[in-house]
Amino acid sequence: MKVIGMFTIIWGHCFPVLFSDFLYTFNVPLFFFISGYLSKYESEKTVFRKKIVQRLVIPYLILAPLKACPHFFNEDAPWSLLAIITGFHSLNGVAGCGKLWFVYTLIIIKLVVQYTSYTRDTRLILFLSSLAGGVVCQYYLKESESWAVTNTFLALPWFLLGYEYKYLQWDTKLTEFFRRKSIWFKYLFTLSLLILVYVVSLFNGRVCMYAAGYGHHILLFMLGGCLGILGIRMISELLSRYSGRVLRLISIGTVVILCYHQDVNHPLLKIVRQEWSPLLLDTATFICSLITLLSFVPIIYIISHYLPFIIGNRKTRK
Q: Quick one: how far is CA 54 from the chain centroid?
């Protein structure tokens, strides 16, 4: 799911004519959902602190300054450093954490959920209060004030849903249910989910979670995200036979891809001509996004072997 999710992030940043709002409906919620699914309460505080520093803080403090380093050699340096430290996409027109707002937000979420002990009542309170906070943020904040802290309000519900999905063993139940169904049923069900997501995106408009934006209506935001996540879950099930080291490398190196994918993708997009038909344009951006994703495989391989701390010391399974 992480690999497909990363692809939808890259393709979404190409702003395909027909599928842009569709992709934004679920691609960022999917990543926070997966993070929640993989999360667990650590009874030992030292273990939790070690994990969050190793998996999130260190990669953020390495990659964010590297990405913004051109600003460090002129008068913009203080603004860029301040934006990175405080989690702003940019300050005073100078680049800050950029696409790594996701990591900054995830650090906040991990801290909040860990120190509220993951209890069922607390999760419900956090879920409802964060949605309310998201509504307030959309009404009172400008998109230019993109801040990882306020983005937490819309990201936290998806993290909690991912954890609840694991806690209630819905994935096991879903697998058991579809095991008894034909392959054609699975394909039809998946297609129906994606069509429903597309319809929801038409009504809800652009979801801009990087700027605490959920579209036109918070309920459509939640509905579209849930349908999209389930759709990606089904696609992953259908493609489960195609597992391998390439996919595992992409999975452990998503933070590097998140930070640098546009640097790879933008030169490729220069071959795309705006006078092409929307369908041809979107096909071209789809192919460029796939090439971009695969181009990171050797990079992540090298990092995982010689600089593993950049990706949180994650390693591929043998």
A: 19
Can you list the alpha helix ranges (DSSP code H) found in the chain? Answer: 2-12, 20-38, 45-52, 58-68, 77-86, 101-114, 120-140, 148-167, 170-179, 183-204, 218-238, 245-252, 254-269, 278-306
What does the pLDDT read at residue 120?
Answer: 85
The DSSP call for residue 73 is G
d(CA 262, CA 91): 20
**What is d(CA 140, CA 134) in angstroms, rounded to the nearest whole number?**
10
d(CA 316, CA 318) in angstroms, rounded, equals 6
Provide the whole-model pTM. Answer: 0.95
Helix (H, G, I), strand (E, B) or coil at 90: strand
Rounded-to-integer distance, Cα 197 and Cα 284, Å = 22
| Phi-psi category of residue 203: left, alpha or beta, with phi > 0 → left and psi -120 to 50 → alpha | alpha
What gap in Å lies between CA 237 and CA 220, rounded to an integer? Answer: 25
Q: Which helix (H) or strand (E) holds 95?
A: strand 94-95
Paired with 213 in beta bridges are 208
Model pLDDT for residues 89-132, shown as the tens digit of each residue: 998 889 899 999 999 999 999 999 999 877 889 999 999 999 99
Tokens representing 317 are 């399974």
Rounded-to-integer distance, Cα 249 and Cα 204, Å = 35
Residue 287 structure tokens: 């192919």
